[in-house]
Structure formats: structure tokens, C-alpha cells
Specification:
The complex is a heterodimer of chains A (114) and B (113). Chain A contains no helices and 11 strands. In chain A, 0% of the residues lie in helices and 48% in strands. Chains A and B meet through strand 5 and strand 9 of A and strand 6 and strand 10 of B.
Chain lengths: 114, 113
């Protein structure tokens, strides 16, 4: 069984540029999560999808971040424009359902904003 | 809001020895789950062990076991017979009715020969 796939693995951009991250969850997983992990910290939830509906986006900085999950499968997280403080690892995870179901994580995208 | 605290930024253990990582949490919920995740340098978070709050029995997975003290809101991870492959960041995490994981700041575990 394939795991959660993310691309790219690394991205370096200049501030004010746009950037997008892509995630393909495990087949059959209805719930998809995007987390941001700052250096030396644990991941923090940005947004959670149940199928194609964003059910928790309270921590998503909506002025510059956007996300979509078309057809309830793949998801894209976008930042426009990027700021220096956005440098972090962006992790995608999926689970069969929400709640206590195990979340399976992808390898993450390390973003560096210069 | 729920919080998870890991007070040990770094721990070290010799190969084949036992080490315990500490975690405390704060919540007003009665129904919740606690997890320990391992994050090696590859960055991929891997679930190590899970504990349901309603279960009194401590969870065990091979060399990994937890000491869950609900009244004290404490959830420590014990790794027995440590191996070089156990070296990683370990995160304690909580999920309750909000269905989102709240992570601690992590403990970096070094395993020495």
C-alpha cells in the first residue's frame, strides 16, 4: 500500500513569491490534514478536510494561505505571497476518518523563504 | 484549549538500556486519546503507540510501553532494549472531541554504543 505522497520535498523561494504544495493521501482515507512544523517544534494543524469539505481551518492564515481538496482526494496548499516567517516543514497526513483514527504522515515539504 | 508539555528537550540512552520520555497534558475533556510519534531525520512521523483515556491498562507495543496516569495527566513512554534505530525526535500528542492532534515540542533521543 502506498503511503502519503507529497511534492516537492524541498522548495526555496524568495519572499513575496507564491508557492504550492501537493499531497496525495492514502487511498480510501476520507480525512486529510495539513500541518506546519517550525524548527524545534511539534506540528501544528493548519486545516482538516473531511472528503472535500474543510471542517477545521481556524489556524490557517487566510490572508495568504489557501487550500483545496478537489474530488475529496488530492489536496494543494498554497501560499501567496510567501514571507520569511513561512519557512517551515509542511506535513500532510491522512486517516480513514477523523477522531482517534491513526493519522499517516507524508515526508513533508521543507520550505525556505529567502 | 488542550496543551501538551514535554519537559525533556534531549535524552540519551545506551544501546540495550531502558529510557523513559516524559509527557504531561492539560485538558478538561474526559474522552480523549494520547499518542507517541517518532520522527526520524527523514521527517516522516510514525505512530509508536496509542492510549485510549477510558482504558486503565497501559498500552504496550513490543519494546515500547506507556505509563498512563489519568489523574496526574501524565503519559510517559518507556523504550526497553534501546536500539540504534530508535534515535529520533519523539512527540507526545493529544486528540479529543476536536479531532485534531495537539503535539508537544518533542524530545530528541540519542542512542549511544
Amino acid at each position: 500500500e502506498a503511503g502519503v505522497v507529497q511534492s516537492p520535498r524541498y522548495k526555496i523561494i524568495e519572499k513575496k513569491q507564491p508557492v504550492a504544495f501537493w499531497c496525495n493521501p492514502i487511498s480510501g482515507h476520507n480525512t486529510l490534514y495539513w500541518y506546519r512544523q517550525n524548527l524545534g517544534q511539534g506540528p501544528e494543524l493548519l486545516i482538516r478536510y473531511e472528503n472535500e469539505e474543510a471542517v477545521d481551518d481556524s489556524q490557517l492564515p487566510k490572508d495568504r494561505f489557501s487550500a483545496e481538496r478537489l474530488k475529496g482526494v488530492d489536496s494543494t496548499l498554497k501560499i501567496q505571497p510567501a514571507e520569511l516567517g513561512d519557512s517551515a516543514v509542511y506535513l500532510c497526513a491522512s486517516s480513514y476518518m477523523g477522531g482517534a483514527y491513526e493519522q499517516y504522515f507524508g515526508p513533508g515539504t521543507r520550505l525556505t523563504v529567502t | 484549549a488542550q496543551t501538551v508539555t514535554q519537559s525533556q528537550p534531549e535524552m540519551s540512552v545506551q544501546e540495550a538500556e531502558t529510557v523513559t520520555l516524559s509527557c504531561t497534558y492539560d485538558t478538561s475533556e474526559s474522552d480523549y486519546y494520547l499518542f507517541w510519534y517518532k520522527q526520524p531525520p527523514s521527517r516522516q512521523m510514525i505512530l509508536v503507540i496509542r492510549q485510549e483515556a477510558y482504558k486503565q491498562q497501559n498500552a504496550t507495543e513490543n519494546r515500547f510501553s506507556v505509563n498512563f496516569q489519568k489523574a496526574a495527566k501524565s503519559f510517559s513512554l518507556k523504550i526497553s532494549d534501546s536500539q540504534l534505530g530508535d534515535a529520533a525526535m519523539y512527540f507526545c500528542a493529544y486528540t479529543g472531541t476536536a479531532s485534531k492532534l495537539t503535539f508537544g515540542t518533542g524530545t530528541r533521543l540519542q542512542v549511544t554504543l
